[in-house]
């Protein structure tokens, strides 16, 4: 579920923005962080993804971070991004955008994407697998000021 926090060091709201404050806090004062997490053995909390990055495929939750970890584990992938795109039947499907390594064995992007599709099929459940794949140049990958991939710009 979503991580929520409350305490004396948590800010009380957004300056001159009551609408954003109301959306960010529960009725009883808990701040909604936007992080999705689960409790592990021995009481550890593991953050899985950001709520805004979760993809809903046919009623199933897909964590983009999980798909991105699998994509990034492929030896031909330098950088990877997974996000949801609209689909009439399923609501959303996963799209993978990757930057391929220049020194990879396979310089043909279409063949590399076929290999990546097969790799994902052996590491992800059907509903988590990207339905769409795209290889782009590193210079085409939009980045935020903090060095993260700007998914909203893809």
Describe the fold and architecture.
The chain is 21% helix and 34% strand. A hairpin with a 2-residue loop joins strand 4 and strand 5. The strands form three sheets. It has a three-stranded antiparallel beta sheet with strand order 1-2-3. The mean pLDDT is 92. It contains three helices and eight strands; from the N terminus they run βαββββαββαβ. The chain has two domains: 38 residues, no CATH class; 103 residues, 2-Layer Sandwich (GMP Synthetase, Chain A, domain 3). The chain is α+β, with helices and mostly antiparallel strands. One of its GO terms (molecular function) is ligase activity, forming carbon-sulfur bonds. This is AMP-binding enzyme C-terminal domain-containing protein. It comes from Emiliania huxleyi (strain CCMP1516). It holds the Pfam family AMP-binding_C.
Q: Within the CATH hierarchy, at the fold level, what is the topology of the largest domain?
A: GMP Synthetase, Chain A, domain 3
Task: Give the terminus-to-terminus CA distance.
Answer: 27 Å
Q: Kindly estimate the percentage of residues that lie in beta strands according to DSSP.
A: 25-35%
Tell me the helix content. 10-25%
Overall body shape: elongated
Lateral arrangement of strands in the main beta sheet: 1-2-3
User: How many individual domains?
Assistant: 2
CATH class of the largest domain: Alpha Beta
Ranges where pLDDT stays below 50 over 5 or more residues in a row are none
Q: What is the CATH-assigned architecture of the largest domain?
A: 2-Layer Sandwich
**Would you count the extended β strands for me?**
8
User: So, the CATH homologous superfamily of the largest domain?
Assistant: ANL, C-terminal domain
Which radius of gyration do the C-alpha atoms yield?
18 Å
The succession of helices and strands, N to C, reads EHEEEEHEEHE
Number of helices: 3
Taking the sheet with the most strands, its summary is: 3 strands, antiparallel
Structural class: alpha+beta
Query: Mean of residue pLDDT?
Result: 92
Organism: Emiliania huxleyi (strain CCMP1516)
Protein name: AMP-binding enzyme C-terminal domain-containing protein
InterPro entries: AMP-bd_C, AMP-bd_C_sf, ANL_N_sf, ATP-dep_AMP-bd_enzyme
GO molecular function: ligase activity, forming carbon-sulfur bonds
